[in-house]
Amino acid sequence: MGNKGRLTAYVGYHALGLLARANASDDAAVLEQGAMQAIWEYYKKDRLSLVTSGEAMELDMVIAFNVEGCCITDTYMITENIEAFEAWERADRGLTEKWKQVVDCFDQLEVLGREHEGLQSEEDTLFVFIRNEVFCGENDNAVFFHRNESDVETLRSCAQHFQDWYGDDRWRDLRRIEYGLNWKILESELRGCSIDPVFEGKDGERNRYLLGLLNRVVGFSKKSCPRLPMSPEHIDFVVKAVMKKYAGDRHEHEIRHIIHCIENDVDFLITIDDDLIARFNSKRHELSKHPECCSMKLLLVKPSELANRLMAHNP
């Protein structure tokens, strides 16, 4: 994994997003964005190893894009999938350009292998240990899960009316994502619930998220139910499966990244999540009790902290 003498830093989707030259929202964001640019320069000059996990990073991107309404059906064709969404009139072209830049940066990173290939039970043990020691707050996801129940009902109601919108030919098309049509289905449901069907900006955040989930419900339904309408039992099955995969525990993805870092003896994991940094770094002593973590050197850092460390050691 690169030169042993160099520091190694792990990046996920949100860290790479800072490299995509999006407009920073405040002074703190400007600081972290500039720091990430400096880190990237160290990497390009071969003075730092920047690594990631192929599978976990791809899942990060799929979920991040899905939150904005964009459905990635094939990670080998991720740019083509972004462009298909971009062709829809409501898509934010600035956002899709950022995604393309993130994908380009991802393609330039070193992708980690797995040191413990095949030891699934051991990995599960480590996963549970980190979840219990670091992400142990009982009420952390209370609001998240409350929101899920409301979203589930919206998706169920949409699925009950697919036959009113989809003809046989469109329903048999398993490749194309009908962004415009799916939005009309969701828009009708939102209006029926007296919810403003705004798509753009902060006010449209939840609706974009729901569209992303609805795209998945439609795709899964097409593959598993060749004829409409669907039974209530099948609708429940599809919606639950989609929610589990695309709206599950947000901590699960973070833990996967941490495990990859521990398995590959990585020095730093770059994140902009202050809460995650505080939780993990304060629990490093407890984590060292696990046999997989006894020699762990991993620290979670914001880009600005890592940039300062690099400047101090590599002026």
Explain the layout of strands and helices.
Elements: E1 8-10, H1 13-17, H2 27-44, E2 49-52, H3 54-67, H4 78-86, H5 93-107, E3 110-111, H6 120-134, H7 142-159, H8 168-172, H9 179-192, H10 205-224, H11 232-246, H12 250-263, E4 268-270, H13 274-282, H14 284-287, E5 299-301, H15 303-313
Parallel strand pairs: 1-2, 1-4, 2-3, 4-5
Helix pairs in contact: 2-15, 4-5, 6-12, 7-9, 7-10, 7-11, 9-10, 10-11
Q: Which features does this protein show?
A:
15 helices; Rossmann fold; 59% helix; mainly alpha; 5-stranded parallel sheet; 315 residues; globular
What would your notes on this structure say?
The protein has 315 residues and is mostly helical. The chain has 15 helices and five strands. It has helices spanning 13-17, 27-44, 54-67, 78-86, 93-107, 120-134, 142-159, 168-172, 179-192, 205-224, 232-246, 250-263, 274-282, 284-287, 303-313; strands spanning 8-10, 49-52, 110-111, 268-270, 299-301. Helix 4 (78-86) packs antiparallel against helix 5 and helix 7 packs across helix 10 (205-224).
CATH class of the largest domain: Alpha Beta
Number of strands: 5
Shape assignment: globular
Mean pLDDT comes to 88
- The helix count comes to 15
CATH superfamily of the largest domain: 5'-nuclease
Bin the strand percentage.
under 5%
Number of domains: 2
**Radius of gyration over all CA atoms, rounded:** 21 Å
Low-confidence stretches: 115-123, 141-146
Reported CATH architecture of the largest domain: 3-Layer(aba) Sandwich
CATH topology of the largest domain: Rossmann fold
Given helix and strand content, the structural type is: mainly alpha
Q: What is the H/E order? A: EHHEHHHEHHHHHHHEHHEH
Estimate percent helicity.
55-70%
